[in-house]
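Check this:
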Amino acid sequence: MKKSLNPMNFMKFAPFALALSFLVLASCTEESEEPIVEASNDELITVAELQVSDEAEMISEEVSTVAEDVYAADEIALTAKSDYTSDYLPDCVTITTVVTDTTREKTIDFGEGCELPNGNVLSGIINLSYAKDMEAASKTIALTLENFTFNDVAVEGSASVLRVRSNENGNPQGTVESNFAATWPNGDTASFSGTRTREWIEGFGTGFWGDNVFLITGKRTYIGRLGNVYMKEVITPLRRELACRFIVSGVLEISRNDNTASLDFGDGSCDAKGILTQPDGTETEIFLRRFLK
């Protein structure tokens, strides 16, 4: 499938939870609402819980993308002394900057609801705080959420981003340590925390959101509404192209208790397919999902 710059495309990855037998969702249609029953009746995982797991991944990734975009625009404009702007955030977002003797404070206000180019609707505020010296080779960005929602999901929490202007490959890089909790409109809850490193390998400084490409590595813990705990670790860097709603390549390993499975996101094509390898070596092609609007 060819890559698309359609703004209604949503990036998507890791849309499943695993339990003792690692059964998976095999269809991406809205009609598929049957529960996934595992080896034990005490280990019931519904399609809705699988969707919550994936939506949690998307929330963390989108918050990180917004923060990096705003910070990069500030860095480029100040260090290059130019009128640089990025087109990722639409006019409905209000960005306020307060400069103190030592810091720059950014308030990114999405108001009552603001739709991004990828179709996600955000409301509330993302706050950023970082050192005033924009020439520094690295710095820490503090991120907090205020009355924040993501596609009507209420999200609380904070993150710390270690920002490097140029890594060993000469690319900007952010290592994000995050801890978020979310509540869905139907009362479902989930928490997700961990560390992800995002290397900005293409599109930095162009001002056009659609050519931005990131390589993502790291680990994350997801706790679903039933209290099940899953460890997610990137084995092969995940490639995120903002022009595509799916992760286009890379391998994610997911563990629960003593069982481990892996999801291969493919060869770089922008499609909804992934290959799940179960603990016994069985491979299954699955279809990836995300928020339905």
